[in-house]
Amino acid sequence: MKALAALLALSLTVSAATAGSLRIATFNTELSRKGPGLLLRDLERGGDASIDAAIAAISAIQPDVLALQGIDWDQDLRALAALKTRLSEAGAHYPHHFALQPDAGLPSGHDLDGDGKTSGARDAQGYGRFTGQGGLAVLSQLPVAAEITQDLSSLLWADLPGALLPVHPDGSPFPSAEAQAVQRLSSTGHWIVPLELPDGRRLNLMTFQAAPPVFDGPEDRNGRRNHDEIRLWQHVLDQGLAAAPFVIAGGT
Questions:
Q1: Strand 96-98 relative to strand 135-140: parallel, antiparallel, unpaired?
Q2: Tens digit of pLDDT for each residue in 14-44?
Q3: Which H, E and C letters describe 50-87, residue by residue?
Q4: Alpha-carbon distances of 198 from 21, 52, 143, 203, rounded to whole Å
Q5: What is the pLDDT of residues 106-121, one digit of tens each?
Q6: Which pTM was predicted?
Q7: Cis bond upstream, residue 169 (ω within 30)
């Protein structure tokens, strides 16, 4: 059922994007593993049902540009390169790939969830047992202008105009003012990735993965963060930080 849900999510997304000549899809692969390097291991040795299902889904539809979520990041992008190889073997060729270090699993050094500890998965800038767990990536048949990509992931939540920061019942910052002073808005990342179109123009791919609006308490920390992560794109457009044409592709 999990693999089927992933296949349907990708199919529906692509179906909504096929009105023009360029097909763009977003796909939460749910390929994240419990430790660093394990995704690369499983991609290289083969025989993993979840990986096989993701590859089958992508190769069956083959969008021109694919925004991925739920894929572990590593410094040299070896796991992403291994996924590209597996996709190529299945007939889906993506000559260009891109990924940056996500906020997921990035240690904050603070108690961000109010449990009195500073080193848990929920104390990272975005939920993660290790840096890069469940990150983002882009696979593309169009060249990526990586050198002018805008990475908004370091924006502090408190610095977003009108931020819906969580509070205690008495109105004080949740879990603390110190935590909110370092808490980033992006639970995974917000990137504006320029793609080179055949006619010489650039298409701005605005991609992200928002925090799930659940798994918290009455302070609604995750729900408020999810709201503001989505609203960041409105702020970006209002401020003219991403020129047309653009597309927003990610997970909410």
A1: antiparallel
A2: 333 333 489 999 999 999 999 999 999 999 9
A3: HHHHHHHHHHHHCCCEEEEEEECCCCCCHHHHHHHHHH
A4: 12, 32, 9, 10
A5: 999 999 999 999 999 9
A6: 0.90
A7: no
